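Progress narrative, Year 2. Work on aldehyde dehydrogenase (NAD(+)) from Calycina marina advanced from sequence curation to structure prediction during this period.
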Amino acid sequence: MQYAIQQLYYDGKYQPATSSKTFQTIDPSTSKPLAEVQAASHADIDSAVASARTAFYSWSQTSPVERSRILLKAVSLLRAQNDTIAKTETQDTGKPFSETSTVDIVTGADTLEYYANLVASGGLNGETAQLRPDAWIYTKKEALGVCAGIGAWNYPIQIALWKSAPCLAAGNCMVYKPSEMTPLHGQILAQIYTEAGIPPGVFNIVQGDGAVGGYLISHPGIAKVSFTGQVSTGQQVASAAASGMKYVTMELGGKSPLIILPDTELENAVDGAMMANFFSTGQVCTNGTRVFLHKSMKRAFENRLLEKMEYIRSLEPMDPNSNFGPLVSEIHYKKVLGYINHGIAVDKAKLLCGGVKKPNMPAGYENGFWVQPTIFTDCKDDMKITTEEIFGPVLCILEYESVEEVVARANNTKLGLAAGVFGRDLNQCHEVISKLEAGITWINTWGESPAEMSVGGWKMSGLGVENGRRGLMAWVREKSTLVEGGGIVGTVFAKL
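Result:
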C-alpha cells in the first residue's frame, strides 16, 4: 500500500514543509517504499512552536475536567480505528498485525484514558498546610508550557501517546517529532486529537532526522524535552536541554538481566525467556537479553527452549498466525547481523540456534530485513554480545551457581533499565528483586507495562519516569504560596 505524501501538522491542520527536503519510509518486510515524508525546516519548527505557544494559555487554563472530556473522545476514536491504525503500524514497523492490533494502539489508548481520568479526579490537586493559626501554605501544580517529544521507531504510536497523554492532560502543549524510521503515525494521531476537539496548536507534528530533533530540543520556546532512544543520543539530548535549563525525561537503553532461580517450573522459565527476547523481534528496550540460568537446570532449559523455537513464525506480517517480524531497517539489520557474527567469530559463544542466515520467506518478502531468532549459550560476562545492547532477537545464556553471585553479576553494568526474576519461592524472588539495580522489574512475568505502572531507568538508562501517578508529575511545576492572614506584617525594622 502506498500512502500520500506526509506533511507536517501544526496549528490544527496539515502544513507543507518549506525545506523542499523529503525522505522515504520503508516497509521492512519487503524493503519497498511506503511514502514520501516532508522534512521540517528551522522555520517550520519555529512556526510549530509559535502555534503551540499561542495555544498554551487557553489550554492550560481549561479545567482538568474539560481537558479530560476531550482526551476521552480521542480514546474512543483510537479504539474505533484500532485495526486501521494497526495495519499502518505493521507496514511502517514490520511488526506482525497480531501484535500491533492487540498491543500498540490498545496500550497507548489505555495510557491516554488513565491520565484523562486522573486529572479529572484530582490528580493535579495541590496541598495545604496550616503554619500558624492565621497563616497558611498552599501549593499549586502548573503546566510547564510547550514541550518537545522525540519518539522512537519500535513502538511509534504507543510512545507518542505515552508522551502526549500526560503532557496534554496536565495542560501543556506539545511539538512531537516521530522517528524518521517510522513516521506514519504522526498525522494519524494529530488528526484524531483534532477530531476529538483539541484546539489548534495543542498537539503538533514535525518530521525529520536528528538535525530536526536537535533544533527542536534546543529551541528557546521549549520548556521540556521527553526523549526515548539509545543511550548515546540521550546523552546528547540531555546535554542540549540542560544548557537551556529545560525539564527532561529520558527513557534510554538497557542490557537487562533475567534471573531464573533453580526452583522455577521449566515451562515458565522457557516461556518467560522467549517473551523477554523474541517478542517484537527483540526490538524492545526492556528485553531481558542476559538470561542467567542455575547450572542445575541449564541442560533441561536449553532442550525445551529449542523445542519451543519452532513456535516462532516468520510469515507475512498480516497473517494472523505470524508472531515474528523483520527488523525495522536495513541499517539496523546490518547492525544486528554484525553482533551475531561477532558472537560467533570473536566472542566464541556457542551458537545454539539461529545465526546470520536469512529465514525462508514467502514470495514478495525475500528482500525484507528478516533475521532468525538467535540463541547463544556458554556466554561470559565480558563478551560483546552480553555487554552491549543489540536491540534484536539475540538471547544470551549465562550459567551461575549462587544467588549472591548472580545478583552481583546482573548489576555489573552501567545500564539499569529493567530486570526480572522467575521462581516458586516468592519471598526469595522479592529479595532478589530488591537487590537488582533497575527501575522496571518483574517477578514471574516479563514485559507488561500498564498505564498504572511507572517505568524509568536507573544509572545510564534514563532520567525520570513515564506512566503511573509519578509520570504526571513530570509534566508540571510546583508553585508554593504562603498567606499571612493576621493583618500585621512582621518586620525587624521597628523603632527602638
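DSSP finds 15 helices and 22 strands in the chain. The chain has two domains: 8-252+461-481, 257-443.
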